[in-house]
Structures are given as structure tokens and as C-alpha cells.
Amino acid sequence: MGAIYKREMLAYFTCPTGYVFAAIFFAISGAVFSITTFGVQSTGTGTYFTFMLVSFIVLIPLLTMKLLSEERRSKTEQILLTTPVSLMEIIFAKFFAAYTLFTGTLVISSAVNTYALYRIAKEQEDVISKLNLPTVIGSIVGILLIGGVFISIGLFLSSLTETQIVAAISSIGAFIFIFLLSVIPSFFENSIIRTVIKWISVFDRYYTFTAGVFDITAVIYYISLTVVFLFLTIRVYEKRRWS
User: Fold this and answer.
1) Smallest Cα–Cα separation from 98: which of 51, 139, 132, 149?
2) Is residue 32 within 8 Å of residue 48, measured between CB atoms?
3) Could you point out which of 50, 66, 76, 116 has its C-alpha 20 to 30 Å from the C-alpha of 196?
4) pTM above 0.85, yes or no
């Protein structure tokens, strides 16, 4: 597993994918943060993190679109399937490689932005009390959990095709659908339907973290959803191995 993980991490930086992802992430993060905080002279970060969540619809497919589709296209998939490594280790190694890059980029950008905001707030004593670090930390934790879900979904969709573009477009479509689940409940009058949709909505559970509250049920939900899609990916390869 360690060898495959290292191979995937190296692959991100021996081709443009890792650099493109990080560059776009930092550019969007810096621009959105400047507009939503410095631009309106506010220490609130809720709008910033919400915009970043929406940007993941396009950003995360950059990380996942080639993880398995490229193996299939280049015919190296058979080598993976015949290595003395379990399918679970292969899939988890690829997942953790993508998740490491995602987490590293998010943590660095959040640290830089939070430090800049803290310096501004410190120079303005009238707003220092508005800088609420628990909500910032909570938002980052929530985003890390959602990122894991998105990466596992993108990895699963990448396993279904040998074309990176198809993998990316299908991932974007899936993420848009997930985003819409947090919007469409308001269009239903039936309270039961609204409750069910909100219960399965990925984004609705996130807002608990933005209040600085650590919701263990939400953590279990996100981790469970991530594991489900990783399991489905393993099942795809088990079927392919014996077909």
C-alpha cells in the first residue's frame, strides 16, 4: 500500500495535475477570501468557506479523474490487479494520495488566510472580538470531511471509465446533484420529504461545524459515506478481476 501511495503522490507532481490543482485552489481561495473578508471589512469566514465548498464541484474532479481511468486507458490496470496487494490497499492508497494533496492545500491556504485575518483584526481592536477561531476550525474540519466524501465519489466514478474527461464530467454532475439536495427541500410542502432530503444532504450537516459545534453524528455520516463509495470502487475492481 505504501509503495502505491508514494507512486500516486509522485505522479501528482511529475505531471501538471498536482500543480494545476494547487494553483487554482490557492487562486480561488485568495480571491474569495479577500472579497468576503477584507473587501467588506469583516472577520466572518462563513461566506468564504461556503464559496470554497461550491468550488470543490470543479476542483476535486481534477484530483480524481485520472486515478483509475488512466490505469485502464494505459493498460496498466492489469498490472495492478495481478500485484500481491489487495484491492482494498490499492483503492485506499489512491484515495489517501488524493486526500493528502487536498488536505495539504486546504490547510496551507486556511492557515495563511486566517493569519492574515488575525493580523488585520489585531490592528483593529473594535473587531478583534469578532474573530471566532472555533467556527474557523469547525468549518475546516467540516470541509475536510466533505472533501473525503467527494474524493471517494470521484474515485468510484473514475473506476467506471477509461476516459478522464468522462470521469471529470460525471463527478461534476454528481457533485452538482449533491449541492442541489441542500436547496430543493424548500420546494416540497411535505415535511416528511423535506426531512428525508435534509437527512441525506451532505451540505446540511456541514453547517453544524460552522457554528463551532463538533457533531459526532455528522462525522460518522461523512466517514460512512466515504467508506461506502470506496467499498463500491473495490467491488467494481473485484468484478473486473474475475471477468
Assistant:
1) 149
2) yes
3) 50
4) yes
